[in-house]
Design a protein that fits this description.
Layout (H helix, E strand, L loop, with lengths): L9 H6 L5 H8 L3 H8 L4 H4 L2 H10 L3 H23 L6 H6 L4 H15 L4 H9 L4 H10 L26
Helix pairs in contact: 2-3, 5-6, 6-8, 8-9, 8-10
């Protein structure tokens, strides 16, 4: 799933494999009525239960990969939008090209959002304290890098009132 992708229905994901609704129900062990409810709904991931999703992921090729990509993209889009509303721009190309796990980068974006919003010191400290591992540290390092093509674009002038909250490099 690419950055500009729209959510896909279950039927769209399975059509290239030639699977129909009954095939998916049989392979996954789900009731056909459950699969029917989700089949043509592009928001099916928001409606499915954990157990049903596990059944689909373990029995239908492409479901696990789609679920992961969709979940990461959805969270990233929300964080990028929230950061933009705070006056920061995220270099999406750098984010996608990074060798750091996307989950770590998204956690770093969340930490950055806490900082620029001026969240309470205990909350920000608590969030940043979770970045003790090597990969988590690389995520923060990338995010707050001043190297072109990494992390944020330069802090815009309209964010000057919050510069005191921004980590010094």
């Amino acid at each position: 799933m690419t950055a500009d992708s729209e959510p896909k229905s279950l039927s769209e994901i399975t059509q290239d494999m030639g699977l129909n609704m009954s095939d998916v129900a049989i392979f996954s062990g789900l009731d056909e009525s459950t699969v029917f409810r989700l089949w043509d709904n592009p928001a099916w991931l928001d409606r499915i239960s954990g157990r049903s999703l596990q059944s689909l992921m373990s029995s239908v090729p492409g479901i696990a990969e789609y679920s992961m990509a969709h979940s990461l993209l959805k969270r990233r889009n929300v964080l990028v939008s929230d950061l933009q509303s705070e006056g920061l721009t995220v270099d999406l190309g750098a984010l996608e090209a990074s060798s750091v796990a996307q989950q770590h980068l998204l956690n770093a974006l969340e930490a950055a959002l806490c900082i620029v919003r001026g969240d309470s010191v205990p909350k920000v400290s608590s969030y940043l304290a979770r970045f003790w591992g090597r990969e988590q540290d690389r995520a923060l390092e990338t995010l707050f890098s001043t190297t072109p093509g990494e992390g944020f674009s330069p802090i815009p002038a309209n964010c000057s009132s919050r510069r005191s909250n921004w980590p010094r490099g």
